[in-house]
């Protein structure tokens, strides 16, 4: 098993930042910015689809990821050590291998 | 090539503290000699127990605040384990500061220089482009951890020495003064989360530590705030006062104002208010403590200097942070008590009035500290006199040396402990 497979699997359902592309209907009741000195992420519930999903935006790069309910539940149940592995920068964003 | 200083030269380069500290006077060079300051860092600040922060400043998992131990930048964090951790603010890679913000919430930190990440307890989580290190998890590195961390009623102390006296041994009788503060809360809970003001002060840290329980200066230095506010505090520090100055041992000292407040027997006089203005607080105190509430409300809060850097001044807390022989920072915050909302808003207002940017108390003291530092640079006379009240000291029923309200008993206690620590060879 490669290093990468053992940690994140494929990076799927990630759309590059495209301002003005499509209409995002954001729930204005529960959104906001989760930010600290290390990262800033916009968080909103997006209702533009047939059902709600969580829209996450990395404000420092513009990269967006949408997460549905099952994906969110999966994150909640992620074992602590798996989350810790994801926080190793060379697991995800800063690795030598290009994205497939 | 490496050079080492011969032991004999090192020995002679250290000041002779026994010759500089006498029972009734101390030498001026103790406040101005950079060698003394270097010695103090090694023998006091990086060895003895030093107050760092309060657990209430990091209430939630992932909370962190930047703190200090002298010039050392320390991050106080609340881990997922619920415990409070102290780590040095220095990346294990190239030594950059990892945290910049004064406070925040983060389970993991990322160094801005090369992107190394750490758990908020100090564990290294990873580094970018791991092939340069032969893969993941190949470095046995972490943020520096403070060797000993302990707390008392939420007050977090650190010792950079692996061993030595316990915190309980260090605090000794001073712990009882923290208890006195806590029992002013109907919930027995102190909160120091109101935020800290910082005042950079061009003076040696010891001038501040000595002044905190010097009952001789208030009538002069603080006469303006006493006259403007009509405060009853001024007369507590006079020859007619029944208040006492107490050497609590280990360098700790207090101005015990209780005899004066007992003499008047008025609840909340210590706070300059009356029961009718804080009715819910008084009701909750009586509910929580029953008959004992009367004494608590009459006797009020402690005025205690806990060696070397924590000063509890009734309604506010000061922390002394030395930076160099002639510079320090005074950190101050309003005490907040659990379940005492009526008191808390008043304590914030009073703190702003006394230590805020236009406050009248700390500015007066700081003017004296900076003038004092300047005056100490004069060549004559070489000594500072600390004999006031020596002839009228006595041991109280608990065996602590006690002087009159305006006596320098606390200052002498400070120097006794200081000398003991400074004479130890490392």
Automatic annotation (TrEMBL), chain B:
Belongs to the bacterial ring-hydroxylating dioxygenase alpha subunit family. It comes from the Bacteria. Keywords: 2Fe-2S, Dioxygenase, Iron, Iron-sulfur, Metal-binding, NAD, Oxidoreductase. Gene3D superfamilies: Naphthalene 1,2-dioxygenase Alpha Subunit, Chain A, domain 1 (3.90.380.10), Rieske [2Fe-2S] iron-sulphur domain (2.102.10.10). This is Rieske 2Fe-2S domain-containing protein. It comes from Haloechinothrix aidingensis. InterPro entries: ARHD_Rieske_2Fe_2S (IPR015881), Rieske_2Fe-2S (IPR017941), Rieske_2Fe-2S_sf (IPR036922), Ring_hydroxy_dOase_asu_C_dom (IPR015879), Rng_hydr_dOase-A (IPR001663). The keyword Methyltransferase does not apply. Pfam families: Rieske (PF00355), Ring_hydroxyl_A (PF00848). Residues 49-158 form the Rieske domain. GO terms for molecular function: 2 iron, 2 sulfur cluster binding; dioxygenase activity; iron ion binding; monooxygenase activity; oxidoreductase activity, acting on paired donors, with incorporation or reduction of molecular oxygen. The keyword DNA-binding does not apply.
């Amino acid at each position: 098993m490669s290093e990468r497979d053992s940690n994140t699997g494929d990076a799927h359902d990630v759309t590059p930042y495209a301002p003005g592309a499509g209409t995002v209907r954001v729930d204005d009741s529960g959104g906001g910015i989760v930010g600290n000195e290390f990262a800033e992420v916009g968080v909103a519930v997006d209702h533009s689809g047939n059902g709600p999903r969580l829209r996450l935006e990395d404000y420092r790069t513009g990269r967006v990821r949408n997460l549905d309910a099952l994906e969110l539940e999966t994150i909640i149940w992620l074992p602590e050590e798996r989350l810790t592995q994801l926080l190793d920068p060379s697991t995800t964003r800063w690795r030598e291998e290009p994205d497939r | 090539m490496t050079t080492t200083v011969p032991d004999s030269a090192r020995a002679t380069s250290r000041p002779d503290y026994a010759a500089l500290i006498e029972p009734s006077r101390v030498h001026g060079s103790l406040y101005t000699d950079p060698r003394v300051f270097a010695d103090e860092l090694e023998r006091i600040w990086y060895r003895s127990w030093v107050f760092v922060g309060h657990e209430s400043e990091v209430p939630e998992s992932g909370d962190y605040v930047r703190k200090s131990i002298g010039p050392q930048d320390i991050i106080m964090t609340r881990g997922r384990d619920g415990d409070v951790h102290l780590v040095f603010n220095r990346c294990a890679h190239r030594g950059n500061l990892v945290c910049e913000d004064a406070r925040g919430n983060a389970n993991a930190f990322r160094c801005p220089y090369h992107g190394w990440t750490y758990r908020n307890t100090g564990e290294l989580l990873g580094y970018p482009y791991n092939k340069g290190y032969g893969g993941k998890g190949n470095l046995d590195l972490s943020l520096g951890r403070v060797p000993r961390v302990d707390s008392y009623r939420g007050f977090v102390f650190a010792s950079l020495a692996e061993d030595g006296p316990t915190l309980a041994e260090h605090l000794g009788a001073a712990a009882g003064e923290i208890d006195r503060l806590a029992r002013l809360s109907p919930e027995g809970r102190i909160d120091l989360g109101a935020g800290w003001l910082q005042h950079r002060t061009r003076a040696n840290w010891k001038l501040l530590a000595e002044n905190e329980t010097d009952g001789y200066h208030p009538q002069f230095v603080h006469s303006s705030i006493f006259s403007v506010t009509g405060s009853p505090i001024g007369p507590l520090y006079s020859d007619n006062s029944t208040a006492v100055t107490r050497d609590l041992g280990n360098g700790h000292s207090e101005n015990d104002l209780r005899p004066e407040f007992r003499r008047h027997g008025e609840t909340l006089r210590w706070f300059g208010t009356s029961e009718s203005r804080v009715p819910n607080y008084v009701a909750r105190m009586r509910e929580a403590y029953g008959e004992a509430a009367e004494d608590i409300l009459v006797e009020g809060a402690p005025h205690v200097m806990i060696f070397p850097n924590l000063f509890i001044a009734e309604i506010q807390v000061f922390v002394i942070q030395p930076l160099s022989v002639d510079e320090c920072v005074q950190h101050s915050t309003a005490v907040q008590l659990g379940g005492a909302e009526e008191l808390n808003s008043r304590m914030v207002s009073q703190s702003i009035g006394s230590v805020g940017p236009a406050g009248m108390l700390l500015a007066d003291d700081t003017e004296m500290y900076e003038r004092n530092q300047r005056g100490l640079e004069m060549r004559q006379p070489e000594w500072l006199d600390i004999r006031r009240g020596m002839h009228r000291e006595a041991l109280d029923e608990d065996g602590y040396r006690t002087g009159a309200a305006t006596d320098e008993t606390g200052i002498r206690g400070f120097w006794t402990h200081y000398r003991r620590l400074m004479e130890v060879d490392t």
